[in-house]
Design goal:
disordered N terminus; about 20% strand; three-stranded parallel sheet; four-stranded parallel sheet; 9 strands; alpha/beta
């Protein structure tokens, strides 16, 4: 029979915790990307966001930072996002152009996307569909 005394457990504890930490590192998420905002409603920020999804979308995190506005003048397609975490802490504001949106069925394309999380960790993120201007 195998016996371990209390002193042996205390000695082995740091090594056991080190193994748990290394496992956590191996299971860590992929990269984090923060797209660059154009800073103006005349600049469509969708290409910058889709580029971030292409770079970090495979298990990574895309962050829309607090205090930053992104203007979405076209459909935001999440293609390339597999198990990604889309964190909205700032503002995503869709165009009020009824001419552009006429006949389109969605402002964000999530069709066939698996495992995405769209969330705000701080509760301050906003997705503004700009419907009040329609």
């Amino acid at each position: 029979m195998f016996k371990i005394n209390l002193l042996s457990l205390i000695i082995l504890l740091p090594y056991t915790l080190a193994l748990l930490d290394s496992t956590r590192v191996l299971n860590a998420r992929a990269s984090t990307c923060t797209p660059t905002s154009g800073g103006s409603s005349s600049t469509d920020d969708v290409p910058a966001i889709t580029s971030a999804i292409a770079s970090c979308g495979n298990g990574g995190t895309i962050v829309i930072p607090s205090g930053t506005s992104y203007y979405l003048n076209s459909v935001l397609d999440f293609a390339g996002c597999v198990g990604c975490d889309f964190q909205v802490e700032g503002l995503l504001k869709f165009s009020s152009s009824t001419k552009y949106w006429e006949g389109r069925t969605a402002m964000m394309n999530l069709k066939n996307i698996k495992g995405i999380k769209i969330r705000s960790l701080t509760g301050s993120g906003v997705i503004d569909g700009n419907g009040q201007n329609a």
